[in-house]
């Protein structure tokens, strides 16, 4: 999910040039594990995202609450 910046990150490649045309959109969801899983399934039924595209649930400081993340991409405006 999270991509570390390596020493070769500044060297453009064919794949990075294509990636630069895409804007990452990051979504966060917080709730109980059951609630988060229910919404993920509901969004999957609507063809929004595959369940495996979401991160693993991460516990928050609040008891019984987890967080999941999803990154979607769209073409950058003007490209």
SSE order and pairing:
Blueprint: H1 14-19, E1 22-31, H2 33-45, E2 58-59, E3 66-75
Antiparallel strand pairs: 1-3, 2-3
Condensed summary:
This protein is of the alpha+beta class and 79 residues long. The protein has 2 helices and 3 strands.
| Overall pLDDT score | 84
Order of helices and strands: HEHEE
Q: Give the structural class.
A: alpha+beta
Alpha plus pi helix count: 2
Spatial strand sequence of the major β-sheet: 1-3-2
**Residue windows where pLDDT falls under 50 for at least 5 positions:** 1-9
Q: Summarize the main sheet.
A: 3 strands, antiparallel
Structure summary, number of beta strands:
3
The shape, in one word, is globular
Radius of gyration: 16 Å
Give an overview in words.
The protein is α+β, with helices and mostly antiparallel strands. The protein has a domain at 23-75. Helix content is 24%, strand content 28%. The chain is built from 2 helices and 3 strands, in the order αβαββ. The chain has a 3-stranded antiparallel beta sheet with strand order 1-3-2. The longest helix is centred in the middle third of the chain and has 13 residues, at 33-45. The chain is globular and about 45 Å long. It starts with 13 loop residues before the first helix and ends with a strand.
């Amino acid at each position: 999910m999270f991509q570390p910046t390596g020493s070769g990150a500044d060297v453009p490649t064919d794949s990075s040039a294509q990636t630069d045309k895409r804007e990452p959109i990051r979504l966060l969801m917080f709730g109980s594990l059951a609630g988060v899983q229910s919404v993920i399934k509901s969004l999957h039924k609507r063809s929004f995202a595959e369940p495996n595209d979401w991160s693993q649930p991460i516990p928050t400081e609040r008891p019984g609450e987890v967080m999941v993340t999803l990154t979607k991409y769209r073409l950058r405006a003007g490209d």
